[in-house]
Structures are given as C-alpha cells and as structure tokens.
C-alpha cells in the first residue's frame, strides 16, 4: 500500500517548532505592550497587547490540535484524528471574533466619551513600532513554514500574526496622532484593530465550520485528481467523484469505469494502481473506488 505524499511526522515537527517560537515572541510582546500601554495611558497599545495575548491562546490551541491530529486511526476513529485541525481552526476563529467585539465595545465607549481620553506618553510609540517589526517577521517565518508543510491551520495562525502586525501599524498611527494633539485617534485606532480582528475571526470560523461539515476539496484539486485517474491505462471514464476534507488532507470516493470484458482480478488491479497514483501525487489519505464494467 502506498502512503500519502505528505510526511505527517515532519509536518507535525515543523508545526510544533514554529508555534513554540510564536509562543515565546508573543509572551514578551504581550507583557511589554500591556504594561507600557497602562503606563503610557494608550488604549490602543493595551488593545494591541490583549490581541497579542489572544495569540498565546491560539498558539496553544494549535499545539494541542497538532499533537492530537497525529494519532493513528483506531476503531472509534477509522479515518484518524486529522479533523482536530479543522476544529481548532473553528475555535481559533471564535476567539478572534470575541476578542474583536470586546475591543470594538471598549473603543466605541471612549470615542463617545472623549473627555476620558488621556494624553499618551511617547514611549508607547516606540513599543508599537517594535511590536510591528517583530510581528511582521514572525508572520513571514510562520507563513513560509505553513506553506512548506501545506497546513491550513498553520496558515490561519500565520495570518493571525499578520493581523497583529497590521493592528500594531494602526495603533502606531493612533499614538502618533495622539502625540500630535489629536487624542481621539488612539481609540479610533483601537476601533479599527477590533474590526480587523472580528472580521478575520469570522472568516476562520466559517471556513472551519464548513470543513467539519465535509466540505469538498477546491475545484482545481478535484480536476487534478480526476486527470490523474483518467491517465491510468484501463480506465475508460469515471463518475461520482466526491471529496471531503480531513484536516488538510482529502478523502476521495469514485466510481471507475473499466471494460466489462476484463476479469474481476484485472479490474481490481487497475483500481489499486489508480488509487496509488492519487495517493502519491495529491494531498489524499484514502481513495475508495468502485468498479463499473462498461
């Protein structure tokens, strides 16, 4: 039996390493942003620090999902545990959405009561710029690893880091505006950050939910799998090609059309070889075939 073309062991190690690096970076950034934000009286910086803190929760969700998704199939889960990743993406999105709504609420209150907005200390600007640089570098590193191992969960977590970089940029602008004599720009920056986080959280949750509901692979991947099957000698056609997501992998069901004049043994051989070609060339963990004589 031919294994899938994805090395799940290497994938798990790469995911664990990149996520732990993110944990370390986010611990230092969140502590610094929140403490300096309180000291400098910057709501935007505190909001950005809370956003960074939510990354730590997201990182641990990724670590837990990564660990459990690598479990071997058993009687209770014959297809394995890869959907831990889909569930984690859904939960990660919910966390982002809730954090975003909370930030929107706080920022709106400050905008409606501008007399409560305080003058920000200049140190807040330097902390925001430092956080921006660190988060952008972290995003680029995590995205490169995620694409290398082809993990949508890691890609989601990487873009979470990019949303942090974007929020730090907005916060820096808000702090700069406050220092220039426009104090309301600080809570406005926090409001924009909240909108960005809530939007991204909704999108991640929506995608994760559909994956848990047996969403099919994308049209390009389905067309590529179909082409691989039809290239196999002895297959005259196919129908009822269905796919469903299992983590970042795919399970395929297909009816293969072969000559009715061939023996059962020959038809079986053709189906097995076609299945192995799909496993070798695509992100597929299983192919269930049915032979239809023509």
Quick summary of this structure?
The protein is built from 8 helices and 3 strands; from the N terminus they run αααααααββαβ. Strands 1-2-3 form a 3-stranded mixed sheet.
How is the secondary structure organized here?
Blueprint: H1 8-40, H2 43-69, H3 83-112, H4 123-149, H5 152-179, H6 185-212, H7 219-230, E1 237-246, E2 249-258, H8 264-281, E3 284-293
Parallel strand pairs: 2-3
Antiparallel strand pairs: 1-2
Helix pairs in contact: 1-2, 1-4, 2-3, 2-5, 2-6, 3-5, 3-6, 4-5, 5-6
Structural features:
10% strand; 3 strands; 294 residues; mainly alpha; three-stranded mixed β-sheet
Please give a structural write-up.
The chain is mainly α and 294 residues long. The chain is built from 8 helices and 3 strands, in the order αααααααββαβ. The relative contact order is 0.14. The N terminus is likely disordered. It is found in: Membrane. It holds the Pfam family Cation_efflux. It is a multi-pass membrane protein.
